[in-house]
Structures are given as C-alpha cells and as structure tokens.
C-alpha cells in the first residue's frame, strides 16, 4: 500500500489521477479512460485501439414511439471538465455534457455527468454517472447503458466470473472471418482456425457468460506475466433494472469487461426505458469500483490468489455501501436513507392449517406497480434481500421515495405485493409487521411438474451438439448456457412433440428445460405443442380446464380439484 497523497495532473487534453499505486489517464473534456498504469504495465487498456475505444460509458437510444430493443449507439463524451474534489485523500473529477433543443433528433435528450474518483491507498478507482431528463424535453427510449473496458489482448487471456466459471479464453483475432464461422446469431462463432489450436471446434459467444444480477458482484480478467488482475466490482444492485434474477452480460472475448446498468437482454422490449411526454427522469448509475490486484510471484500461473483476493475486495466494497465519499448530492449517504423490516409467511390451506414461514423469500422495494412489475421496471431504484428460515427480513439503506414491497417465496407460485405504499424518508426505520401471502389456487394440487423456484435447472438439459460446444460447460451446473440447445429439441422430437404422462414421466429426464420451436429441414421453424396426460376418476363435462392461475415459468404446471 502506498501512503502517497492523491495527485491530479491537468494537461491540455488529458487528466491524470495518481495515488502511487496506479495512474488513470482520462481525455479532456471527453472523459474517456485512455490509460491505466499499474504494477509496471504501462497501460492495461488496449493500446492498439484508438483512445476513444478503450474505457468509456456508452448508451443506446431511440426516438419515442420506436419499437424493438435497438437504436443509435453513442459513446458518451463530455464537453466540460471540472474538478469536484482535490485533496490529499481524494480526487473526484466530472465530465459533463448538456443537451439543448438544437440537438433534437441528433443526441439523446439527457444531461449527463460522468464522475471518476480515486482515493488514497486504494488499488483502483470508482466511476458513476448522473442522467437527467427535464420535463419539457422530448421523450425517448433508452434500451441500454453501461461502462466498457477493453484490455490488452496479449496480456489478459484468463477470465473469471465465478468460482466455477473461469477459463483461459480465445483471442479476439480468433473471431475474425478467416478464422471463424458465424452461427445463428452474430455474437456466436465457431472457431475453425484459432491461433491457439486448443480452441478449435469451440463456440465463442458472449451470452454464454451472462449472470443474474444477484450473483453479478465481481468479474474480470487476469494477466499471468506479470500476475495482475483487472476486476469490475458492483457492490449494489439498487441502480440495475429488472430485479435480482435479471441476467446481464459480464466479461467476454476482447478482452472486454462490462458494467451493465440497463439492458433489454433476455427480456425484450419490456425492459426498454421509455419516457413519456412531459415526464422528468433522473437516475444515478453506480458507483462501481475498478479494482486492480497483483501477487509478487506466480510460478505456476495459478489464477486463484488473484480471484480470491478480488472476491475479498468485493465483500469489502459491499460492506462499505452506500459509500460516504461521492461528492454529488444526488448520491445519498447512509444517514439520508431509510430501512424496512418485517416477516413474510405463506397461507396455503391445502398445505398446512398454520401459516408457513417464508423461508428464503425474495423481498424487495421497487417503484409502485402491480404484483411482479419490478421485473419490468427500469426507471427507478430497487432494493432486495432474502428472508431467513423463519421469514424475517431487513432491507437497509433505501433511497428516499415511494415504493411498493414485492416478494415471492420459493416453493410457491405467484407474486406478492403489499397493498400499502411505503414512503421512505431519511433515517426512517419502518417495521411492516407480519405479511401473509396467499398463493393462487382453486383446490388441492393433484399433480405438478418441477419446482416453482423461477429456475428450470431441475428439468432435462440436453447435451449440446458435439460440433458446437464450450468446454467450460461440459458436465457443468450451468450447462444450459451451451450454444444451440434449442435445436436439440428437434433431434429428440423430430416428428411429434413432447408428451408427459403424470405418474410415469420424470421431469428430470422427460421435460425439456425450455419450450422452443422446431427447426425443419428447410431451415424454417414451426411452433410446438406439448401434451400432459393424466388420469382423473371423475370429470365434470360442464366445466373447462382453467389455467389462468398458472405461472409463466416453464418449471411448473398444476391442476386442482375444482378444474375437473
């Protein structure tokens, strides 16, 4: 650790933050990270790229009324540089760009303030941004915004996302046309002539490395010589969209390291932020921490010391949240936030006469809406936790504002919403007491397929086509991430669709993990209709089977007595 004070060097076209451990250079006034010096490496970022294509904030936007999840890609460049804090202990700099009506249709109608922070004795730097849309400005759509870092390909070739999701990675050159074959989606390629032969025959696809928000705390890249790690740490989900199970991109071949804040990946247009006429909107994304680490020697090229240290640093950052050092008043510290606690139970008269503790329930505060609407929310903030085995929970450090409390309990279908709005004020401590969730049902359960836990992990996940594999996911718990599994359904059911017989079939072997289309010989697709066969002693011919209470998730189907 260095005891050097934090220095700020303001040059004609660049700004350099230096704390004796690392130096970070940003373009002025654009606010693009052009250089990161650390542990004897002159620049961790890809020097072959132009400066604007190394470390940057970006977004995708479109005009109001546009459909779909695409739009205009824009690397956010500031037009004004300002020093916010400059002391021995901390430097915080700002790069802002203002919108005005003359830019209508040309630039996204947002005021954006990008911030970068370096602290004394800290092996990294922080970044956050404030997006502000005024009421009188034109509405627009925002499908995506994120931070991107592109590292040096000759140095960073080992990627780590989780304890069991890390590997030596192909080079970006392996994805070039002469070395690969593009598959059904442009992001997925088959490596046919890679520089390193070990990757021949593998599929490279950035979506194979996605992760749920709840598990997406730290990921990054490792350089073996010298042994250096580059990590993106996100200590809180409060500024992410879609709730704790929303999947987001992480790191991928480039080597690229992402901090995703808003995206429609895996969700579609429901998670495109759409502002209406006369609708103001402001949101703070971040701060996130870019952490750098190293070890003195690594004779066996063992990545585990760097990965374990990165996980430890992630926990340190989580415990420090919300940070007390960002200078913007738009980021409230802990004493300007509130807390909510309570207990959730389940009342299901067909399971138990007594209330059942909501063991492991997901409980969260999100903007007001219908039950389950948090999954589509992308404008506000969300705060989530898990209940203990008795259903007790506590949500801390909630931003001021009005929220609904949402929940779901693994093992029970449906979504819960507490009817009363919850108003959070600075320093408030709210105990909502005991809440009781009654899952939808019309009678006793006669049969069910799978487990209502919002995961399809218990179902049959086929082996991938041996011509299209990612070696990481062979015999792996996340083998569902293998490329092309949707086409395996047609291999299993070439002529007729899946038929599942209650009492005979086994959902671990006989229930395909996703309901997909069937690819035909002429490369077109047709819809599929699955059948569930079951025996009933008595059938009420005057009634139709009611399925309105069934959840959307593929893991669970049920029928009740009143549906006979």
From TrEMBL:
Broadest EC class assigned to this enzyme: lyase
Family: Belongs to the polysaccharide lyase 4 family.
GO cellular component, as recorded: extracellular region
PANTHER family per record: RHAMNOGALACTURONAN ENDOLYASE (PTHR32018:SF16), RHAMNOGALACTURONATE LYASE FAMILY PROTEIN (PTHR32018)
Occurrences of domain Rhamnogalacturonan lyase (ranges): 358-431, 445-544
UniProt catalytic activity: Endotype eliminative cleavage of L-alpha-rhamnopyranosyl-(1->4)-alpha-D-galactopyranosyluronic acid bonds of rhamnogalacturonan I domains in ramified hairy regions of pectin leaving L-rhamnopyranose at the reducing end and 4-deoxy-4,5-unsaturated D-galactopyranosyluronic acid at the non-reducing end
Main location group: secreted
InterPro entries: Carb-bd-like_fold, Gal_mutarotase_sf_dom, Galactose-bd-like_sf, GH-type_carb-bd, Polysacch_Lyase_4, RG-lyase_II, RG-lyase_III, Rhamnogal_lyase
One biological process term in Gene Ontology: carbohydrate metabolic process
Protein name (record): rhamnogalacturonan endolyase
GO MF assignments: carbohydrate binding; rhamnogalacturonan endolyase activity
Localization terms from the record: Secreted
EC number: 4.2.2.23
Keyword vocabulary terms for this entry: Lyase, Secreted, Signal
